[in-house]
Amino acid sequence: MVGVKMAAAAAASIRERQTVALKRMLNFNVPHVKNSTGEPVWKVLIYDRFGQDIISPLLSVKELRDMGITLHLLLHSDRDPIPDVPAVYFVMPSEENIDRMCQDLRNQLYESYYLNFISAISRSKLEDIANAALAASAVAQVAKVFDQYLNFITLEDDMFVLCNQNKELVSYRAINRPDITDTEMETVMDTIVDSLFCFFVTLGAVPIIRCSRGTAAEMVAVKLDKKLRENLRDARNSLFTGDTLGAGQFSFQRPLLVLVDRNIDLATPLHHTWTYQALVHDVLDFHLNRVNLEESSGVENSPAGARPKRKNKKSYDLTPVDKFWQKHKGSPFPEVAESVQQELESYRAQEDEVKRLKSIMGLEGEDEGAISMLSDNTAKLTSAVSSLPELLEKKRLIDLHTNVATAVLEHIKARKLDVYFEYEEKIMSKTTLDKSLLDIISDPDAGTPEDKMRLFLIYYISAQQAPSEADLEQYKKALTDAGCNLNPLQYIKQWKAFAKMASAPASYGNTTTKSMGLLSRVMNTGSQFVMEGVKNLVLKQQNLPVTRILDNLMEMKSNPETDDYRYFDPKMLRGNDSSVPRNKNPFQEAIVFVVGGGNYIEYQNLVDYIKGKQGKHILYGCSELFNATQFIKQVKCVFHLLLLTYPKLL
Amino acid sequence: MAAEAGTFLLASPLAGGGVRNRNGPPAAGLGPRSPAADVGRPGAGRRGCGSPRVRVAMAVDITLLFRASVKTVKTRNKALGVAVGGGVDGSRDELFRRSPRPKGDFSSRAREVISHIGKLRDFLLEHRKDYINAYSHIMSEYGKMTDTERDQIDQDAQTFMRTCSEAIQQLRAQAHKEIHSQQVKEHRSAVLDFIEDYLKRVCKLYSEQRAIRVKRVVDKKRLSKLEPEPNTKTKESMFSEKVSQNPSKDSEEKPITEEYPEKIPAEAQPELGSWGDGRGEDELSPEEIQMGLGISSMASGSHGLEGNWSQNLVPVLTAANRSPCEAAVTQRPERKRSALPHALKSGAQRKLCSRGTLQFLNHLEPVVSFV
């Protein structure tokens, strides 16, 4: 039991660990202790865009205020001198950032400086700052300098991405473009490895690394192993010593790091989805846990319909404190709609109760009966009054999710996303198709051109045998008629030809989706959500390729797909090139990292997979998050470059 | 990461280079540059002063490395013949550099207010135990606190809180004068918000202990309802109420059945105190209920007196000569809290002095003239 608890503590805590690290940094680099009658301290926070992206999913503006931050400003902005205030900096140690910091020192902007670098600063750059400080006679004002090792963005308790600002640098396109030079590749790999290194420093564990051969993932694995190994050998400066590891959780159990390349599975990034969070990411503008909605008032959105009259822009943060989101972000959409309705009803009941008590209290004292009720109701009213903030919060969440779910539902209805989802699931699980693919593609009312392209690509990827030339021409014509650009198809053709398709991602499992019929409780109770015509589909767990690979490696199962994966253990004395795993026991804890990008569908699949397993935990990370639209764009880019580099290809 | 919450002042960094021992608490006594922060003992690595890098949980402290870099640069610049900024150690030049800068009226005054609020907090905490103590009547002469004294504390605290609040208001009014920078304005507003929040938290100490006191009285009244003969009891409880309000007697928490009219001293009879108003005691007035509610809501900070607390404070004070905490302890509108009779007051004051209150009162002076 103890082992389980400790594993739970470790796994759930990457967000917590990063948050704790940030809070300590903001507290002048000493642990933060809550003291209800402590004197206020104040400071300003200066960050660059990297720092901003790291902080914003973890700390709200209010929480920053609670830590005593009066102002938070971008490094590269106009900043006025503010006397008598300490400044906490949280920036990447880049050339231009260092220059700007030196300028701040020269201009005597603040009283004291607490410099925190997101990833480790080089000695020479440190000397640049020293130089500027000397020249400005400001050495004594530099109070503390820290390497924070926080160069990654945590979005969920169990999910992280590398970066946002320079994601172009480590994007799918960047890694897969044919014209990349060795130097450029080195830079990309170094960037990825630096972030992963920071991740493990923050997690406080040295993993055992497994990766596929001949891919970018392998390059990352080699470099990461080297970096971890070097750090462990350096006794004086090692970041993984005993008292830094999370309370000895990993003293007997080390986590598994599975590095995979995006190219093992190109169907999942294109897949239509049915779970709440993945849907939001797919159809709405969702980024770093913030969703931006354009609210149209009243007018229905249909493909051939009228434009909405008025558009309000609204943004919502979907955070860990949002209880509804935490509970339902992985739920199938109809369940979400139903739950919003239930929450609304429960809220109204509570509101009525409070109103009733309030009106009773309004009676002044004439009525004997009322007076005697008073003493009974005092306790009730006290609790009602004190629960008002909770009620207000509940209302806020209900409004939020009503708006978000409505926006999603509009897309679902307009594009018939339920049809696409169901069909794709059938394709991927090799169930017989009840409708012809050509029909769906040719149907003018179902989906955007891009939806059709996605569907066809999934069909093409999953097909055991390539369709005949005649069939292919038919499909191509239908797609072109529907308005699709065929470049992604060409790319996938090439990909399929070049990639190792021995154990193709074809076997997605043998289960299907079940349609629960069109009627649902939601429709009957006149809810906000008119789900008429939308299928009430229920997901059945089937393992996507990444999940399957993880399962093999974590449970030490033998499988031709993963048997020849490389094995690295940075703690081993000898440089390790063998594929023979030394560790024979199943792992309790694993981190899956996709080099080349990932998405919420993959994440959700892993979450569902591990849910059934007591005491086991998975973290999911990727170099960037993209939805299908963004992925297709990158694919088109790569294809163009392919054509330029290898004109004879087609 | 267990850290003891001490109250060390943040030591200012040493000028120039030099290895600092990071294994002990920072040197106290150096003037704080910024308001004191709680300094815990971070989980530093086993490496002590020798290494320029110190592991603090996950992050790495490279301050010493930085200082070493400064030395390196100095040496290098000397060798190259480049002038190092401001002399050998730069400190002289730094002082010179910094003096023409306006030291900031605002910050020093803000810190003064904070230190005053701190004094109030210390005072309340010091006497909290005695204030709340329910059994002071059976304790020794030294340990107990009379109701008079409690009232005195209440009054002093309220005056003090009012003064602090006014000081904050003044600062707010003056903070934005002659300042053109939007950032500085925003910064100052936030600082004042923090100070106000601090005052609120310290007032919470006061209102909590006051609420306990009030609740005890309300509970006693409830108990008095349980007596079998409502009519005679009404009179008796009225007397007992008066006795319990009797500030000149120390016996306030005696069981009700022991109260007798002969215990009421003549001079206390017109003294009515905050509760007990001649009405039938077997019903709780809505105000009394609200009193309980108001305090609990005040304590939980939810409704009732929400919003701009200090803005509410000033008009309430001027209007009714009461603190917001007392407004929660609502009385019948037509009653005012009567002042203690003179003779009693001085007696009580003398008693309180023995607890160091006089010193406290003295401290009020500079705050009041703090304009």
Write the layout of secondary structure elements.
The complex is a heterodimer of chains A (650) and B (371).
Chain A: H1 2-11, H2 14-26, E1 43-47, H3 49-55, H4 61-66, E2 69-74, E3 86-91, H5 95-106, E4 112-117, H6 123-135, E5 142-147, E6 153-156, E7 159-161, H7 172-176, H8 182-203, E8 208-211, H9 216-233, E9 256-261, H10 276-283, E10 285-287, E11 290-296, E12 311-317, H11 323-328, H12 333-361, H13 368-386, H14 388-415, H15 417-428, H16 437-442, H17 449-462, H18 469-481, H19 487-498, E13 514-515, H20 521-524, E14 537-538, H21 545-554, E15 566-568, E16 589-595, H22 600-611, E17 617-622, H23 628-645
Parallel strand pairs in A: 1-2, 1-3, 3-4, 4-5, 7-17, 8-9, 9-16, 16-17
Antiparallel strand pairs in A: 6-7, 8-15, 10-11, 11-12, 13-14
Chain B: E1 54-56, E2 59-61, H1 63-80, H2 91-98, H3 105-132, H4 147-175, H5 182-225, H6 230-245, H7 286-300, H8 309-320, H9 324-328, H10 342-353, H11 357-368
Antiparallel strand pairs in B: 1-2
Helix pairs in contact in B: 3-4, 3-5, 4-5, 4-8, 4-11, 5-7
What Rg of chain A do the Cα atoms give?
28 Å
Largest sheet of chain A: 7 strands, mixed
Any low-confidence stretches of chain B, pLDDT <50, length ≥5? 1-51, 86-101, 230-371
Strand order of the largest sheet of chain A: 6-7-17-16-9-8-15
Distance N to C terminus of chain A: 60 Å
What would the principal axes of the Cα set say about the shape of chain B? elongated
Percent strand of chain A: 5-15%
Q: What's the alpha carbon Rg of chain B, rounded to whole Å?
A: 28 Å
N-to-C SSE string of chain B, H for helix and E for strand: EEHHHHHHHHHHH
**Strands of chain A, total number:** 17
Tell me the strand order in the biggest sheet of chain B. Answer: 1-2
Oligomer: heterodimer
Largest interface: A-B, 84 and 88 residues
Q: Main beta sheet of chain B, described?
A: 2 strands, antiparallel
Give the uncertain stretches of chain A in residue-range form.
1-12, 243-251, 298-302, 363-368, 500-507, 509-525
Query: Mean of the pLDDT scores of chain B?
Result: 58
